[in-house]
Amino acid sequence: MTVRLDDLDRKILVQLQEDGGQSLDDIAKAVGSSKTPVWNRIRKMREGGVIRQQTYLLDAEALGFEACFFVLIRTSEHDAGWQGQFLKALNARPEVMEAHRLAGDIDYILKVRVANARAYDVFYQALISEVKVHNVTALLSMEEIKSTTMLPI
């Protein structure tokens, strides 16, 4: 189902991305509309799949997850069975914030949030005990320069 968005829809989406906890009144005021049309548009965008879910962003460091690793994975396995096992292993680990299958020399990249290097090693040992990989390279992020969930609407 394709949802056609106009300027008002886009303004509403910007407001929701900035703070999904805003009241309908606040969103309506910010976009120059009234509450009922804003609610109807949000409902239609949810039904159309433009808005997937409402959530809260937590501060990883404030919660003790001070280390962010980008994990580059090369594998010699590419069959459906291996991929299913790999996906199951990733989904079972809340430390994996993102996982992407790539084109090029690296097959997968993971963004992993853990408390420290020792916690990363526990994650790594568990992963390689469950899934056969050819090569794993872990890169520790020294500083997060930019992080956003906002799409450029």
From TrEMBL:
Every HTH asnC-type domain range: 5-66
Signal sequence bounds: none
Domain of life: Bacteria
GO MF annotation terms: sequence-specific DNA binding
Organism listed in the record: Roseovarius tolerans
GO cellular component: cytosol
GO annotation terms (biological process): regulation of DNA-templated transcription; response to amino acid
Keyword field: DNA-binding, Transcription, Transcription regulation
Protein name according to UniProt: Leucine-responsive regulatory protein
Cross-referenced SMART domains: HTH_ASNC
UniProt-listed PANTHER family: DNA-BINDING TRANSCRIPTIONAL ACTIVATOR DECR, LEUCINE-RESPONSIVE REGULATORY PROTEIN
Short name of any one Pfam family annotated for the protein: HTH_24
